[in-house]
């Protein structure tokens, strides 16, 4: 804890805030890509401490939030089938599909289990050879290596009753999509540090160059975030648009070569739909031909299901940084963490959940006490 406490030091935070204040001569809009960074910003009140010239825009980097409705519905369909053990991380159980969530499937008799690692699911497959075990593989470049390694292990061990429902998404194409949106107000990015621990920083210079936008790789503690913002503002003020690594204690330029090799072996790049955003070309992974036998979508023949998104939820706009969560009319009223209408209110990294957890007291009384 001591190590982390040093990155929350209030005196040093004050120094960084002062430097940001001195540097920012005009208004700038900076997007933190990662939901973990959003939670840190809101939890520590960083956005409120920043000078008025700096606006933080919350990005789409929450793995649970961006998993498309169609994929949730496929998970519900597979989990409802007899003989299936459906395994997932806990957050996914409360994400609303078109008509229900995985908790409902469990309450209706489905064998839905929360696991803490995809390897737990593989062990379940070994222990239950007469059942089909499916793991819901969601998330960004951060979680993908463990899922890739699990499929690699399943193939190596000849395990036939394990499969992966793959919904992996990639950060750089999402940054490109945000910059190409006609409504885009983002002028700089704090790139997600943990994604870069895997992938390194080499994907970002072409984006910084093409969109003339600074990209600063940033960690998750308050001082990490303030330092990322400080470096971003200095670039913006001087008209530069470069990639900087403000998280060198975890991120190397080349990333993690072993993890990248595993990803390259098991996955291949594909177009992916992002919940609330739509299809982004070449923005995700699916299993490569060598591992296609472990693809749950093929094993269970779940084709395109009819989906029905909530007509009230504005999480797509939240995920693109177009509105803040409390600007959604349902926030804190029809939509709360206990009764979420959208994934951004469910996930521990979702922006709506962050505002609900840490900002309710700033809201009008009728919303705060709803
Ligand atoms: S507050 Fe609820 S309904 Fe509104 S955007 Fe967030 S998740 Fe959707």
From TrEMBL:
Pfam families: HypD. The keyword Nuclease does not apply. InterPro entries: Hyd_form_HypD, HypD_1, HypD_2_sf. Gene3D superfamilies: 6.10.20.100, HypD, alpha/beta domain 2 (3.40.50.11740). Keywords: Iron, Metal-binding. Belongs to the HypD family. This is Hydrogenase formation protein HypD.
